[in-house]
Predict the structure of Orotidine 5'-phosphate decarboxylase.
Amino acid sequence: MNNPLIIALDFPNKQDVFKFLELFQGEKLFLKVGMELFYQEGPPIIYELKEKEHQIFLDLKLHDIPNTVKSAMKGLAHLGCDLVNVHAAGGKEMMMAALEGLDAGTISGHKRPGCIAVTQLTSTTEEQMKREQLIGVSLEESVLQYALLAKESGLDGVVCSTHEVAMIRNQIGDSFWTVTPGIRLTEDNIHDQKRIATPEFARKNGATAIVVGRSITRAKEPFEIYQTIKKQWEGVLQ
Ligand code: C5P
């Protein structure tokens, strides 16, 4: 993966999406379609975005028994997405089944979509994890355990916070992708995110990709903010 800035299209319908994308005329983007949009618009939204030559991360965070995940992934691969994901909490057998499904569904002559695992959501704090999930180790250890499981299962990488990237790279290696949401410019509202950081911090810590939603989609001038974030991410602007 070529260190993309992935824009999270957290919109309720395709009208809002295409109105937003009018601001990015001519740009080939890496776009994340999540549950909100996909559950309303379904597969056609993926075809329409691919037709415009955007790359797509379909962020449905699958988490079910292995056979169900395998069958669902077969269908998602057929849509032609570039990247999909599962919850690492579903376990090794489930993650391996996800890959089998993707291999089976990939259209002949196309590349299998990348597959990454969500570790601990970036909206989760260590205190919350310990209290609600009864996980006794530190948040970092829990994230690392999930990342190791994902690696052993053959996945391409994980979704994690920028704060865990260096640890994961040290333990698992540089070729294992770390896709990091929870990105904010210093002056931004953090909303429901907890483990946040700036694009510059993400770059300095070696993240493979950043995922940015509301800082761009809810900005008064989305294209200008996109460019600022992109420059910080690429190290052109400090
Ligand atoms: O608006 P914001 O930049 O916080 O959006 C982050 C996006 O990344 C959302 O679409 C959210 O679903 C997604 N995400 C996340 N944390 C994860 C996995 C995905 O925030 N661990």
